[in-house]
TrEMBL record:
The gene is tenA. The lineage of its organism: Bacteria, Bacillati, Actinomycetota, Actinomycetes, Pseudonocardiales. The keyword Hydrolase applies. The keyword Amino-acid biosynthesis does not apply. NCBIfam families: salvage_TenA. This is Aminopyrimidine aminohydrolase. It catalyses: thiamine + H2O = 5-(2-hydroxyethyl)-4-methylthiazole + 4-amino-5-hydroxymethyl-2-methylpyrimidine + H(+); 4-amino-5-aminomethyl-2-methylpyrimidine + H2O = 4-amino-5-hydroxymethyl-2-methylpyrimidine + NH4(+). Its EC number is 3.5.99.2. It comes from Pseudonocardia tropica. Catalyzes an amino-pyrimidine hydrolysis reaction at the C5' of the pyrimidine moiety of thiamine compounds, a reaction that is part of a thiamine salvage pathway. Pathway: Cofactor biosynthesis; thiamine diphosphate biosynthesis.
Amino acid sequence: MADRTRDLLWSDVDTLYGAILAHPFVTGLTDGSLPHETFRHYIVQDAHYLRGYATALAVCAAKAPTDDDTLMFAEHAAGAIAAERELHADLLGALGLTSEQARELPVAPATRAYVSYLLAVAYGGSYAEGVAAVLPCYWIYGRVGEHLVGAGSPDPVYQRWIDMYAGEEYHAVVEAVLDATDRVGAAASPAELARMREHFTTTSRYEWMFWDGAYRRETWPV
């Protein structure tokens, strides 16, 4: 269906998605050129991010108009915390860092900005706006996983990361959120749909910035 909300949203960020695929952080996962220190910085920041993302998902659950959507986003909020504890603990261990040590490291500028934007939209916007804001983290990771899995990685740590986001279980989660997006988008007023598009594009840009910040091992300049 050409008139699905998901198709409209993706049309706004297709060029941006190409920039994500071309970023040396992403290409470095499959050719093995990404230094482990850079990936470790990314995992530390992702752990910080997921705690804020879980809060945004919980707010979406609280605002959801149906029991099914409330249950879905509440489960995903719990899943984000579980991922932060389990997957990241596993990956950090392979990279020589404990979860406790990672928690004490500073939140980088891109991470702080991205999480702050998500929470502002989730709390201050409508349910539809919140869904649009949290969607890129689901969808872009799924698309990146699909793109990278064919090439694979010579590095087992990176392959583990790719396999998770390319897996059927993860893609079933993404599809459920896309279905919710289509439903709320179909019911949205033109003004609300315009805000959904703005939020979706903004947080898609933050996805690029998050990987770029990790690649540069971004710290606060002052």
